[in-house]
Amino acid sequence: MEYEPIIGLEIHAELLTKTKMFCGCLNDPNEKQPNKNICPVCLGHPGTLPTINKKAVESVLKVGLALNSFIPEFSKFDRKNYFYPDLPKGYQISQYDEPLCQGGKLKLYLNDDQDESQKEILITRVHLEEDTGKLIHDPIKNITLIDFNRAGVPLMELVTEPVIHNGKEARLFAQGLQILLRTLGVSNADMEKGEMRCEVNISLRPKGSDKLGTKVEVKNLNSFRSVERAIDYEIKRQTEVLESGEKVIQETRGWDDEKGITYSQRIKEEAQDYRYFPEPDLPPLHLYSQTKDGGLFNLQELKNNLPELPWEKKERLIKEYGIPFKGANVLIQDAFLLNLFEETIKELKQINPEFLSQGVNLIYNYLLTDTLGIKEKENLSWEEIKITPLYFAKLIAYLVQNKITSRVAKDVLLELIKNGIDPESYIKEHHLEQINDISLLDSVINEVINNNQKAVTDFKNGKETAIQFLVGQCMAKLKGAASPDTLKTMIIEKLKSLS
Fold first, then answer.
1. 434, 483 in Cβ contact below 8 A?
2. Residue 482 pLDDT > 90, yes or no?
3. Domain membership flag for residue 305
4. CB-CB contact of 219 with 247 (8 Å)
């Protein structure tokens, strides 16, 4: 029997606010000293009262507006009751039946397949809650410590409809959401730091059936690669269980990234197990009013002030600059790279607007191939890269005017990236301008031919690759400051005249 995977995602993201969700403690994810940013409120001491962080509510509303969610006039907080060592109150303040944002959709806009990138993943809800503390296990001493710095940090949760069918779609959705959160400035959403966490719900059903299968949840996936791998593994595991005639158990499973397998953790709780009820210490939220002045927010103003959204940015890059579809995906996933691309274009326009017709394509190619290649090869972070838009634009201007060769440009780019040199001064100081003196080129060609008679013989015997060797020898002597095509033409003519 053929089975169809049905997948839904639950994604948590810590929000960028100055203080925690329900108290005045600092929200500092980089704090190294344990239990520094804590108070009686976030530790759940008896008699303390929470207060709502308005900035956190606004951040979630921005996400909802960007996703075309329905924003109700009223919302409320609820108590979600469960015991866990890092949950100081014994319950979590969350939202249940009246979340801040209902519905919405997000395209898989990062898919390199132009048609598949239009697929929309429907969203069930986006709500707001508080984060838990952090357990720190010491296997040597066989103890577990608790750091409550994270307890009470504003946490957005987004739940999708079960409309995802494989690991790749889930990964693309999560990556697209991360870029959106960063674009809106509401979260850094760094999965490696735990600022964004993903849980997946997976079930299999016979293909063509409307009835959902038994749901299994895989928790705390901390990388996009893990999301994709865990889903693909779980689809395979559940398929084998069903084909063997057994039943899939509803449970919560963990992911072992090293072994590439999921493993059972506990039987999955149902909503009623949490005993939700309205949070008695917090009033309902009157978000806005459609009929009169009132409410905490002006939704229209929030919507009007949204920045250019990632999929809008991608469409603009393709239309305005002629960037290839896949290349636009690379640019919008890297804020530094995209900023360098657009700022360099502005600087090149200042140097000479006529350079733009050729220059934009050169900027794009030297960024996505050479710059990223150097970054990876040299193991550099963007903070260590010293390239500036002005100096990069100067280098591109030299190329547009054919003042330097592409070989020289690559060498200068390396110096620009590692040392932040002014390319204009560097090129002049090292005499790297393209050599167009025919007599000088002819002299170097004669020297190379005289010193490489084997290559000359090979060429005469029909080996065309011998020409590339001779061109390379000339380029080396000229430090790359000559046109390879010009050299090739001159060498061929010279060898034919010697035949």
1. yes
2. no
3. no
4. no
